[in-house]
Design goal:
Elements: H1 2-15, E1 23-32, H2 39-53, H3 56-62, E2 68-76, E3 82-91, H4 94-106, H5 118-129, E4 138-144, H6 154-160, E5 166-173, H7 178-192, E6 200-203, H8 209-221
Parallel strand pairs: 1-2, 1-4, 4-5, 5-6
Antiparallel strand pairs: 2-3
Helix pairs in contact: 2-4, 2-8, 3-8, 5-6
Length: 236
């Protein structure tokens, strides 16, 4: 009887592995390539993102649990100017993360003369999320150096596109104009951040992009700290 019970228990374990890996997060990275971003700044953000992804801190965050992450990235500017840099990729091993970072780092800017259509960019991100792998959480990482100046804004995008269950975090790239930077930060806080625990990171110019992105990725992909999330004013 004891042997039969042990065999039955072993069969249950084989049929339902207790530690089966799953996707804990679908993370979609969005890079601003509007006309306010020059060639040097674009190289800094593209290279900075690639370097941040393979930094020791971010790698530790990616692989802090057995559950994996699905990663994708796109660039955006005008209303019809979005381009996928990295399609959905399962990051379940350091080599997969290095490969994704290299693909982003090698990417070539698709446009350089269009305005900042953030509502369209967010809509593109929501539709891209529709075909993401099935994951426990979904986050869009929206980086930019300016406010929406073409078409509808983020708040309308959140009403018109499928954003249920999607958190939107922000990375603001500041400049040298204190008033303009303050207005941009307020715009992100008021209109871009969305969902429980959504947060904003600020880079002190594009030279600081890698550091700011590294901090943000650590927080986004690391194992959640229960009780640490605070609601965003006006967030859904």
């Amino acid at each position: 009887m004891v042997k039969l019970g042990a065999a039955f228990a072993a069969a249950l374990v084989m049929a339902h592995p207790a530690q089966a890996a799953q996707c804990r997060l679908a993370l979609l990275l969005a890079l601003d390539i509007s006309s306010s971003v020059d060639a040097t700044e674009d190289a800094l953000q593209r290279g900075g993102l690639a370097a941040a992804l393979i930094s020791p801190q971010v790698q530790n965050a990616f692989f802090g649990t057995a559950d994996h992450i699905a990663l994708a990235a796109y660039e955006w500017s005008g209303r019809y100017n979005q381009n996928i840099l990295l399609d959905w990729t399962i990051i379940d091993h350091p080599n997969a993360l290095v490969g994704a970072a290299e693909q982003i780092g090698r990417s070539v800017r698709s446009h350089n003369a269009f305005p900042t259509a953030m509502g369209f960019a967010l809509g593109f991100g929501a539709e891209m999320m529709e075909r993401a792998p099935s994951c426990l959480n979904r986050t869009i990482d929206m980086a930019g150096d300016g406010q929406n100046n073409e078409g509808f804004g983020p708040l309308l995008a959140y009403r018109e596109f499928p954003f249920d269950g999607i958190v939107v975090n922000g990375l603001v790239v500041s400049g040298t104009d204190f008033e303009a930077d303050s207005n941009l930060i307020a715009f992100y806080q008021r209109e871009v951040l969305r969902g429980p625990g959504a947060f904003l990171e600020v880079a002190d110019g594009f030279e600081d992009y890698e550091r700011a992105m590294r901090r943000k990725l650590e927080r986004e992909v690391g194992p959640p700290v229960f009780g640490a999330l605070q609601p965003v004013p006006g967030g859904e």
